[in-house]
Design a protein that fits this description.
mainly alpha, Growth Hormone, Chain: A, two-stranded antiparallel ribbon, 73% helix, globular
Length: 440
Protein backbone atom coordinates (compact mmCIF):
# COMPACT_ATOMS: atom_id res chain seq x y z
CA UNK A 1 0.00 0.00 0.00
CA UNK A 2 2.92 2.36 0.64
CA UNK A 3 4.20 1.65 -2.87
CA UNK A 4 1.02 2.91 -4.49
CA UNK A 5 0.35 5.84 -2.14
CA UNK A 6 3.89 7.16 -2.63
CA UNK A 7 3.80 6.86 -6.40
CA UNK A 8 0.33 8.43 -6.71
CA UNK A 9 1.62 11.53 -4.92
CA UNK A 10 5.10 11.61 -6.43
CA UNK A 11 4.92 10.29 -10.00
CA UNK A 12 1.29 10.37 -11.11
CA UNK A 13 0.98 14.18 -11.62
CA UNK A 14 4.04 14.32 -13.89
CA UNK A 15 2.95 11.15 -15.73
CA UNK A 16 -0.47 12.52 -16.64
CA UNK A 17 0.81 15.99 -17.56
CA UNK A 18 4.05 15.19 -19.39
CA UNK A 19 3.33 11.77 -20.90
CA UNK A 20 -0.44 11.86 -21.48
CA UNK A 21 -0.63 15.58 -22.23
CA UNK A 22 -3.27 16.65 -19.73
CA UNK A 23 -2.91 20.27 -18.64
CA UNK A 24 -1.33 21.09 -15.28
CA UNK A 25 -4.32 23.06 -14.06
CA UNK A 26 -6.66 20.26 -15.17
CA UNK A 27 -4.65 17.53 -13.41
CA UNK A 28 -4.30 19.67 -10.29
CA UNK A 29 -8.06 20.28 -10.17
CA UNK A 30 -8.85 16.58 -10.67
CA UNK A 31 -6.44 15.43 -7.98
CA UNK A 32 -7.75 18.08 -5.59
CA UNK A 33 -11.38 17.11 -6.28
CA UNK A 34 -10.62 13.43 -5.73
CA UNK A 35 -9.21 14.16 -2.27
CA UNK A 36 -12.24 16.24 -1.31
CA UNK A 37 -14.30 13.15 -2.15
CA UNK A 38 -12.71 11.68 1.00
CA UNK A 39 -14.40 14.34 3.10
CA UNK A 40 -17.57 12.31 2.54
CA UNK A 41 -16.15 8.77 2.60
CA UNK A 42 -13.75 9.07 5.56
CA UNK A 43 -16.37 9.78 8.27
CA UNK A 44 -18.66 7.08 6.85
CA UNK A 45 -15.94 4.41 6.92
CA UNK A 46 -14.79 5.46 10.39
CA UNK A 47 -18.35 5.44 11.71
CA UNK A 48 -19.15 2.02 10.23
CA UNK A 49 -15.82 0.49 11.24
CA UNK A 50 -16.41 1.41 14.90
CA UNK A 51 -19.82 -0.28 14.72
CA UNK A 52 -18.83 -3.43 12.81
CA UNK A 53 -19.24 -6.59 14.88
CA UNK A 54 -18.32 -9.66 12.83
CA UNK A 55 -16.63 -12.90 13.85
CA UNK A 56 -13.37 -11.84 12.16
CA UNK A 57 -13.37 -8.47 13.96
CA UNK A 58 -14.36 -4.92 13.18
CA UNK A 59 -11.22 -3.77 11.31
CA UNK A 60 -10.28 -6.81 9.17
CA UNK A 61 -13.49 -6.93 7.06
CA UNK A 62 -12.96 -3.40 5.78
CA UNK A 63 -9.31 -4.00 4.93
CA UNK A 64 -10.12 -7.17 2.98
CA UNK A 65 -12.97 -5.43 1.13
CA UNK A 66 -10.60 -2.62 0.11
CA UNK A 67 -8.10 -4.84 -1.71
CA UNK A 68 -10.09 -5.43 -4.94
CA UNK A 69 -10.96 -1.73 -5.31
CA UNK A 70 -7.34 -0.65 -4.89
CA UNK A 71 -6.00 -3.31 -7.25
CA UNK A 72 -8.45 -2.51 -10.07
CA UNK A 73 -7.85 1.24 -9.80
CA UNK A 74 -4.06 0.77 -9.68
CA UNK A 75 -4.21 -1.26 -12.89
CA UNK A 76 -6.24 1.46 -14.64
CA UNK A 77 -4.25 4.45 -13.35
CA UNK A 78 -0.76 3.00 -13.76
CA UNK A 79 -1.33 1.23 -17.09
CA UNK A 80 -3.85 3.54 -18.78
CA UNK A 81 -4.89 3.52 -22.45
CA UNK A 82 -3.16 6.05 -24.69
CA UNK A 83 -6.33 8.11 -25.06
CA UNK A 84 -6.94 8.44 -21.29
CA UNK A 85 -8.39 11.86 -20.65
CA UNK A 86 -9.53 13.95 -17.68
CA UNK A 87 -12.71 11.88 -17.17
CA UNK A 88 -10.71 8.65 -17.04
CA UNK A 89 -8.30 10.09 -14.47
CA UNK A 90 -11.11 11.52 -12.33
CA UNK A 91 -13.14 8.29 -12.27
CA UNK A 92 -10.29 5.94 -11.37
CA UNK A 93 -8.54 8.23 -8.90
CA UNK A 94 -11.82 8.49 -6.97
CA UNK A 95 -12.16 4.68 -6.94
CA UNK A 96 -8.56 4.44 -5.76
CA UNK A 97 -9.08 6.83 -2.84
CA UNK A 98 -12.30 5.07 -1.82
CA UNK A 99 -10.41 1.79 -1.59
CA UNK A 100 -7.56 3.52 0.20
CA UNK A 101 -9.97 4.96 2.77
CA UNK A 102 -11.55 1.55 3.38
CA UNK A 103 -8.07 0.21 4.06
CA UNK A 104 -6.34 3.08 5.81
CA UNK A 105 -8.79 4.13 8.54
CA UNK A 106 -9.46 0.63 9.94
CA UNK A 107 -5.76 -0.21 9.56
CA UNK A 108 -4.53 2.70 11.68
CA UNK A 109 -7.36 2.27 14.19
CA UNK A 110 -6.36 -1.39 14.49
CA UNK A 111 -2.77 -0.41 15.22
CA UNK A 112 -3.82 2.11 17.88
CA UNK A 113 -5.78 -0.62 19.68
CA UNK A 114 -2.95 -3.17 19.92
CA UNK A 115 -1.57 -1.81 23.20
CA UNK A 116 -2.48 0.77 25.89
CA UNK A 117 1.17 1.53 26.80
CA UNK A 118 2.68 4.97 26.12
CA UNK A 119 6.12 3.82 24.93
CA UNK A 120 5.02 0.59 23.27
CA UNK A 121 2.68 2.53 20.99
CA UNK A 122 5.67 4.40 19.60
CA UNK A 123 7.53 1.13 19.01
CA UNK A 124 4.51 -0.23 17.11
CA UNK A 125 4.20 2.86 14.93
CA UNK A 126 7.96 2.76 14.40
CA UNK A 127 7.89 -0.82 13.11
CA UNK A 128 4.83 -0.07 11.00
CA UNK A 129 6.58 2.94 9.49
CA UNK A 130 9.69 0.88 8.74
CA UNK A 131 7.51 -1.71 6.97
CA UNK A 132 5.92 1.08 4.94
CA UNK A 133 9.39 2.35 4.07
CA UNK A 134 10.26 -1.04 2.61
CA UNK A 135 7.33 -0.64 0.20
CA UNK A 136 8.21 2.96 -0.56
CA UNK A 137 11.88 2.13 -1.15
CA UNK A 138 10.86 -0.68 -3.46
CA UNK A 139 8.72 1.77 -5.43
CA UNK A 140 11.67 4.16 -5.78
CA UNK A 141 14.56 1.68 -5.98
CA UNK A 142 13.10 -0.71 -8.56
CA UNK A 143 12.86 1.93 -11.34
CA UNK A 144 16.20 3.45 -10.29
CA UNK A 145 17.95 0.06 -10.43
CA UNK A 146 16.31 -0.81 -13.75
CA UNK A 147 17.38 2.54 -15.17
CA UNK A 148 20.97 2.02 -14.01
CA UNK A 149 21.27 -1.57 -15.25
CA UNK A 150 19.02 -1.72 -18.31
CA UNK A 151 18.54 1.93 -19.26
CA UNK A 152 14.78 1.53 -18.74
CA UNK A 153 12.76 2.79 -15.76
CA UNK A 154 13.66 6.47 -15.46
CA UNK A 155 10.78 7.97 -17.43
CA UNK A 156 7.34 8.55 -15.95
CA UNK A 157 5.47 5.90 -17.96
CA UNK A 158 8.16 3.30 -17.24
CA UNK A 159 8.12 4.09 -13.52
CA UNK A 160 4.33 3.87 -13.28
CA UNK A 161 4.02 0.59 -15.16
CA UNK A 162 6.81 -1.05 -13.14
CA UNK A 163 5.40 0.04 -9.77
CA UNK A 164 1.89 -0.97 -10.82
CA UNK A 165 2.89 -4.51 -11.73
CA UNK A 166 4.97 -5.05 -8.58
CA UNK A 167 2.21 -3.68 -6.33
CA UNK A 168 -0.47 -5.83 -7.93
CA UNK A 169 1.60 -8.95 -7.21
CA UNK A 170 2.60 -8.11 -3.63
CA UNK A 171 -0.51 -6.36 -2.29
CA UNK A 172 -2.81 -9.38 -1.74
CA UNK A 173 0.05 -11.45 -0.31
CA UNK A 174 1.15 -8.84 2.24
CA UNK A 175 -2.39 -8.00 3.37
CA UNK A 176 -3.20 -11.69 3.78
CA UNK A 177 -0.35 -11.99 6.30
CA UNK A 178 -1.84 -9.24 8.48
CA UNK A 179 -5.40 -10.49 8.12
CA UNK A 180 -4.49 -14.00 9.27
CA UNK A 181 -1.85 -13.28 11.89
CA UNK A 182 -2.67 -10.10 13.85
CA UNK A 183 -5.15 -10.06 16.77
CA UNK A 184 -7.95 -7.60 17.39
CA UNK A 185 -9.14 -6.39 20.77
CA UNK A 186 -12.00 -8.32 22.34
CA UNK A 187 -12.76 -5.93 25.21
CA UNK A 188 -13.75 -2.85 23.20
CA UNK A 189 -16.83 -0.87 24.17
CA UNK A 190 -18.98 -0.63 21.00
CA UNK A 191 -19.73 2.85 19.73
CA UNK A 192 -23.44 3.60 20.15
CA UNK A 193 -23.48 7.35 20.72
CA UNK A 194 -25.35 9.47 18.20
CA UNK A 195 -23.13 11.04 15.58
CA UNK A 196 -23.53 14.68 16.57
CA UNK A 197 -23.08 14.00 20.29
CA UNK A 198 -19.93 12.01 19.53
CA UNK A 199 -18.56 14.72 17.28
CA UNK A 200 -19.17 17.33 19.96
CA UNK A 201 -17.05 15.34 22.43
CA UNK A 202 -14.34 14.80 19.84
CA UNK A 203 -14.18 18.47 18.84
CA UNK A 204 -14.13 19.41 22.52
CA UNK A 205 -10.94 17.37 22.93
CA UNK A 206 -8.39 20.22 23.03
CA UNK A 207 -5.27 18.02 22.76
CA UNK A 208 -6.75 16.36 19.66
CA UNK A 209 -7.41 19.74 18.02
CA UNK A 210 -3.86 20.90 18.72
CA UNK A 211 -2.40 17.61 17.47
CA UNK A 212 -4.57 17.64 14.36
CA UNK A 213 -3.70 21.17 13.28
CA UNK A 214 -0.01 20.66 13.98
CA UNK A 215 -0.08 17.64 11.71
CA UNK A 216 -2.14 19.49 9.09
CA UNK A 217 0.42 22.30 8.88
CA UNK A 218 3.41 19.96 8.72
CA UNK A 219 1.64 17.85 6.08
CA UNK A 220 0.81 20.94 4.02
CA UNK A 221 4.52 21.81 3.98
CA UNK A 222 5.14 18.44 2.32
CA UNK A 223 2.09 18.29 0.05
CA UNK A 224 2.87 21.66 -1.56
CA UNK A 225 6.14 20.29 -2.95
CA UNK A 226 5.64 16.53 -3.42
CA UNK A 227 3.73 16.74 -6.74
CA UNK A 228 6.37 19.17 -8.05
CA UNK A 229 9.47 17.19 -7.23
CA UNK A 230 9.77 15.26 -10.50
CA UNK A 231 9.35 18.56 -12.35
CA UNK A 232 11.98 20.20 -10.10
CA UNK A 233 14.54 17.53 -10.92
CA UNK A 234 13.76 17.69 -14.65
CA UNK A 235 13.68 21.49 -15.08
CA UNK A 236 15.89 22.93 -12.31
CA UNK A 237 18.52 20.21 -11.98
CA UNK A 238 18.11 19.35 -15.68
CA UNK A 239 18.23 15.58 -15.15
CA UNK A 240 14.88 14.26 -16.47
CA UNK A 241 15.52 10.62 -15.46
CA UNK A 242 17.19 11.25 -12.07
CA UNK A 243 14.06 11.69 -9.90
CA UNK A 244 14.03 8.11 -8.52
CA UNK A 245 17.73 8.27 -7.61
CA UNK A 246 17.25 11.61 -5.85
CA UNK A 247 14.04 10.71 -4.01
CA UNK A 248 15.62 7.47 -2.82
CA UNK A 249 17.85 9.45 -0.46
CA UNK A 250 14.81 10.83 1.37
CA UNK A 251 13.81 7.30 2.29
CA UNK A 252 17.38 6.36 3.22
CA UNK A 253 17.10 9.24 5.69
CA UNK A 254 13.80 7.79 6.93
CA UNK A 255 15.51 4.47 7.65
CA UNK A 256 17.95 6.24 9.94
CA UNK A 257 15.40 8.64 11.37
CA UNK A 258 12.70 6.16 12.43
CA UNK A 259 14.80 4.19 14.98
CA UNK A 260 16.38 7.45 16.15
CA UNK A 261 13.01 9.04 16.93
CA UNK A 262 11.64 5.84 18.50
CA UNK A 263 14.71 5.74 20.76
CA UNK A 264 14.35 9.41 21.68
CA UNK A 265 10.59 9.16 22.28
CA UNK A 266 11.21 6.38 24.81
CA UNK A 267 13.36 8.77 26.83
CA UNK A 268 11.35 11.99 26.71
CA UNK A 269 7.82 13.22 25.95
CA UNK A 270 6.68 12.40 22.43
CA UNK A 271 5.94 15.97 21.39
CA UNK A 272 9.54 16.98 22.15
CA UNK A 273 10.84 14.56 19.52
CA UNK A 274 8.27 15.80 17.01
CA UNK A 275 9.34 19.40 17.61
CA UNK A 276 12.96 18.41 16.96
CA UNK A 277 12.11 16.73 13.66
CA UNK A 278 9.93 19.62 12.47
CA UNK A 279 12.76 22.06 13.25
CA UNK A 280 15.26 19.95 11.30
CA UNK A 281 13.01 19.84 8.24
CA UNK A 282 12.16 23.54 8.44
CA UNK A 283 15.83 24.52 8.49
CA UNK A 284 16.87 22.16 5.71
CA UNK A 285 14.15 22.46 3.05
CA UNK A 286 14.92 26.09 2.06
CA UNK A 287 18.42 24.95 1.01
CA UNK A 288 16.89 23.82 -2.29
CA UNK A 289 17.07 27.47 -3.31
CA UNK A 290 20.81 26.99 -3.94
CA UNK A 291 20.45 23.89 -6.14
CA UNK A 292 21.15 24.31 -9.85
CA UNK A 293 21.78 22.37 -13.06
CA UNK A 294 23.62 19.12 -12.45
CA UNK A 295 23.42 19.36 -8.63
CA UNK A 296 22.07 15.83 -8.18
CA UNK A 297 24.38 15.08 -5.24
CA UNK A 298 23.39 18.30 -3.45
CA UNK A 299 19.69 17.49 -3.86
CA UNK A 300 20.31 13.97 -2.56
CA UNK A 301 22.07 15.32 0.54
CA UNK A 302 19.31 17.84 1.28
CA UNK A 303 16.63 15.19 0.88
CA UNK A 304 18.59 12.76 3.06
CA UNK A 305 18.62 15.26 5.96
CA UNK A 306 14.95 16.11 5.43
CA UNK A 307 14.27 12.36 5.38
CA UNK A 308 15.79 11.95 8.83
CA UNK A 309 13.27 14.45 10.17
CA UNK A 310 10.48 13.04 8.00
CA UNK A 311 11.00 9.62 9.54
CA UNK A 312 9.22 10.95 12.60
CA UNK A 313 6.06 12.18 10.88
CA UNK A 314 4.37 8.77 10.76
CA UNK A 315 5.81 7.48 14.05
CA UNK A 316 5.30 9.87 16.94
CA UNK A 317 2.14 11.69 15.70
CA UNK A 318 0.41 8.33 15.19
CA UNK A 319 1.44 7.25 18.66
CA UNK A 320 0.16 10.55 20.07
CA UNK A 321 -3.20 9.96 18.33
CA UNK A 322 -3.65 6.75 20.32
CA UNK A 323 -3.03 8.71 23.55
CA UNK A 324 -5.66 11.29 22.54
CA UNK A 325 -8.15 8.48 21.83
CA UNK A 326 -7.62 7.25 25.41
CA UNK A 327 -8.78 10.65 26.64
CA UNK A 328 -11.86 10.38 24.44
CA UNK A 329 -12.63 6.90 25.80
CA UNK A 330 -12.44 8.31 29.31
CA UNK A 331 -14.93 11.07 28.44
CA UNK A 332 -17.30 9.17 26.11
CA UNK A 333 -17.15 5.66 27.58
CA UNK A 334 -16.75 4.21 24.05
CA UNK A 335 -13.94 2.94 21.81
CA UNK A 336 -14.10 5.25 18.79
CA UNK A 337 -10.66 4.98 17.24
CA UNK A 338 -12.22 4.70 13.77
CA UNK A 339 -13.98 8.05 14.13
CA UNK A 340 -10.78 9.77 15.25
CA UNK A 341 -8.71 8.30 12.47
CA UNK A 342 -11.45 9.25 10.00
CA UNK A 343 -11.32 12.87 11.16
CA UNK A 344 -7.53 12.79 10.98
CA UNK A 345 -7.57 11.16 7.54
CA UNK A 346 -10.12 13.66 6.23
CA UNK A 347 -8.05 16.61 7.36
CA UNK A 348 -4.80 15.27 5.93
CA UNK A 349 -6.44 14.35 2.61
CA UNK A 350 -7.89 17.83 2.32
CA UNK A 351 -4.36 19.09 2.88
CA UNK A 352 -3.03 16.78 0.17
CA UNK A 353 -5.75 18.05 -2.14
CA UNK A 354 -4.88 21.64 -1.35
CA UNK A 355 -1.19 20.92 -1.94
CA UNK A 356 -1.63 19.69 -5.50
CA UNK A 357 -4.59 21.99 -6.13
CA UNK A 358 -2.59 25.05 -5.09
CA UNK A 359 0.91 24.28 -6.34
CA UNK A 360 0.19 23.19 -9.91
CA UNK A 361 -2.09 26.16 -10.75
CA UNK A 362 0.46 28.50 -9.15
CA UNK A 363 3.14 27.14 -11.48
CA UNK A 364 0.78 27.63 -14.41
CA UNK A 365 0.14 31.20 -13.20
CA UNK A 366 3.93 31.78 -13.10
CA UNK A 367 3.95 30.76 -16.77
CA UNK A 368 5.80 27.50 -16.17
CA UNK A 369 5.13 24.83 -18.83
CA UNK A 370 6.44 21.28 -18.16
CA UNK A 371 6.40 20.38 -21.87
CA UNK A 372 8.88 23.07 -23.04
CA UNK A 373 12.19 24.70 -22.10
CA UNK A 374 11.16 27.54 -19.78
CA UNK A 375 12.81 30.98 -19.64
CA UNK A 376 14.91 31.92 -16.55
CA UNK A 377 12.22 34.02 -14.84
CA UNK A 378 9.75 31.11 -14.78
CA UNK A 379 12.41 28.74 -13.47
CA UNK A 380 13.43 31.20 -10.75
CA UNK A 381 9.81 31.61 -9.61
CA UNK A 382 9.38 27.83 -9.57
CA UNK A 383 12.54 27.32 -7.49
CA UNK A 384 11.70 30.04 -4.95
CA UNK A 385 8.18 28.70 -4.46
CA UNK A 386 9.39 25.11 -4.15
CA UNK A 387 12.15 25.97 -1.66
CA UNK A 388 10.52 28.52 0.63
CA UNK A 389 6.77 27.81 0.79
CA UNK A 390 7.13 24.83 3.20
CA UNK A 391 8.94 26.94 5.82
CA UNK A 392 5.80 28.91 6.74
CA UNK A 393 3.88 25.77 7.62
CA UNK A 394 6.73 24.12 9.51
CA UNK A 395 6.84 27.21 11.76
CA UNK A 396 3.07 27.10 12.35
CA UNK A 397 3.26 23.41 13.21
CA UNK A 398 6.12 23.95 15.66
CA UNK A 399 4.20 26.71 17.48
CA UNK A 400 1.35 24.28 18.16
CA UNK A 401 3.61 21.45 19.28
CA UNK A 402 5.65 23.45 21.81
CA UNK A 403 3.13 23.26 24.67
CA UNK A 404 1.31 20.03 23.85
CA UNK A 405 -0.58 19.01 27.02
CA UNK A 406 -0.52 15.16 27.02
CA UNK A 407 2.87 14.28 28.42
CA UNK A 408 4.04 10.90 29.66
CA UNK A 409 2.85 11.78 33.18
CA UNK A 410 -0.54 13.01 31.95
CA UNK A 411 -1.10 9.84 29.96
CA UNK A 412 -0.28 7.69 32.98
CA UNK A 413 -3.10 9.39 34.86
CA UNK A 414 -5.53 8.81 31.97
CA UNK A 415 -4.62 5.12 31.74
CA UNK A 416 -4.94 4.67 35.49
CA UNK A 417 -8.50 6.03 35.37
CA UNK A 418 -9.37 3.79 32.42
CA UNK A 419 -8.02 0.75 34.26
CA UNK A 420 -10.24 1.60 37.23
CA UNK A 421 -13.26 1.70 34.90
CA UNK A 422 -12.45 -1.57 33.06
CA UNK A 423 -14.43 -4.72 33.97
CA UNK A 424 -12.32 -6.93 36.28
CA UNK A 425 -12.65 -9.95 34.00
CA UNK A 426 -11.43 -8.11 30.89
CA UNK A 427 -8.34 -5.97 31.54
CA UNK A 428 -8.06 -2.92 29.32
CA UNK A 429 -5.92 -3.54 26.27
CA UNK A 430 -6.52 -7.30 26.00
CA UNK A 431 -6.73 -8.82 22.55
CA UNK A 432 -8.21 -11.87 20.97
CA UNK A 433 -6.36 -13.92 18.36
CA UNK A 434 -7.29 -13.38 14.75
CA UNK A 435 -8.01 -16.11 12.23
CA UNK A 436 -4.93 -18.26 11.86
CA UNK A 437 -3.10 -16.68 14.82
CA UNK A 438 -1.47 -19.04 17.29
CA UNK A 439 -1.85 -18.47 21.03
CA UNK A 440 1.31 -18.32 23.10
Amino acid sequence: MSMVSTSVSLFLPAFYTQDLGLGMASVGAILMLSRFWDVLTDPIIGYLSDRTRLAMGRRRPWILAAVPLVMISVFCLYLPPEDAGPGFLLAWIMVFWLGWTMFNIPYFAWGAELTPRYVERTRITGWRTMAGLVGTLLAIAAPAASQAVFGWGGRNAEIMSMIGVIALVLMPVCIAVAATGVPERSDFVPARMKVWAGLAIMLGNAPFRRLLFAFVFSSLAVSLTTPLFVLFVAHIILEPTAAPQVVLFYFFGNLIGVPLWVWLAARTDKHVTWLCSISLMGITFPQFVWVGPGDVAAAQLILFIIGIGGGNTQVVPSSMKADVIDLDRLRSGEDRAGLFFAAWSTATKVVAALGVGISMPILAWFGFDPTVVNPPEQLESFQLYFSLSPLVFYVLSALLIVRYPITRQTHSSIRAELERQAPPSEPAGSTSPGPGARSS
